[in-house]
Amino acid sequence: MSYQTTMKPVYATVFILILLVATSAAVAVNIDERLHRRDDGRWKRGIEYLNECSAAAHVQSVRYESYAARAREDGRPATARLFSALAQSERVHERICAHASGLFNGEYEPPTVMVKVKTPTSANIEKSLSYERRRLDVSAGMAAKRAIEAGNRYVARLMIWLDGSNRRHLELLERARDGILAEEGYEVCPNCGNMYERRNCDVYCPFCLTNSTEFTVFGNRDD
Ligand SMILES: [Zn+2]
């Protein structure tokens, strides 16, 4: 009896130890596989797409800030607010792509860019429309398609998200060209860059479900 009562806990301890070693080995193999996956071509290409996306968003954010300054000079404050909101949306896109690149051990350096605006606000709206249309024509679905072909569905999902946000840029610029401006201002989701006219703001961002109380406001009042 005494033999059985002293040996049972020993068996149990040995069993638990074996289980722990086996579990640790399985976790180690899993981590190693995940790290290895990050080193293969699809992650490398994914990092390239993300860094390209960050750099393009950075350049465009600087451009939109310059257009906003020119709109203020031209006495068009509502258009200035739209351009400032567009610049903020681009900065959010830059941050999202740079962060995702970093998760895959990519390194992103913002490009140095100098923008000198010589054209009046109406021309800057047209230039912005051309840029947004070209970007959607070239990249709408294409960046996501490239990422899927490279086997990186994570990057593909991110690109689809950004395409949706860029489509809002185009819609709001088309309205501005037609003289429809949100006099009360615009709001930008800080987590995905989605934009709103203040009077048509959703309670939650439909893309990422961020509460509208967290949106960045570009308006002529603080409420
Ligand atoms: Zn959002």
The mean pLDDT is 83
Q: Under the CATH scheme, which architecture of the largest domain would be assigned?
A: Up-down Bundle
Proportion in β-strands: under 5%
| Integer count of domains | 2
**Could you please say which CATH topology of the largest domain applies here?**
Ferritin
Distance between the termini: 79 Å
Total beta strands = 3
The hetero molecules present are: zinc ion
CATH superfamily of the largest domain: Ferritin, core subunit, four-helix bundle
CATH class of the largest domain: Mainly Alpha
The helix/strand class is mainly alpha
Helical amount: 55-70%
Poorly predicted runs are 1-5
Radius of gyration: 25 Å
The biggest sheet amounts to: 3 strands, antiparallel
Secondary structure tally, helices: 6
**What is the 3D shape?**
globular
- Side-by-side strand order of the widest sheet: 2-1-3
Commentary on this structure:
The N and C termini lie far apart (79 Å). The chain has helices at 2-39, 41-73, 77-103, 121-139, 142-149, 153-177, and strands at 185-188, 195-197, 216-219. By secondary structure, it is mainly alpha-helical. It folds into two domains: 1-39; 44-181, Ferritin, core subunit, four-helix bundle (Ferritin, Up-down Bundle), CATH 1.20.1260.10. Strand 1 (185-188) and strand 2 form a beta hairpin. Mean pLDDT is 83; it is low at 1-5. The chain has a three-stranded antiparallel sheet. Residues 189, 191-192, 194, 205, 207-208, 210 line the site of zinc ion (ZN).
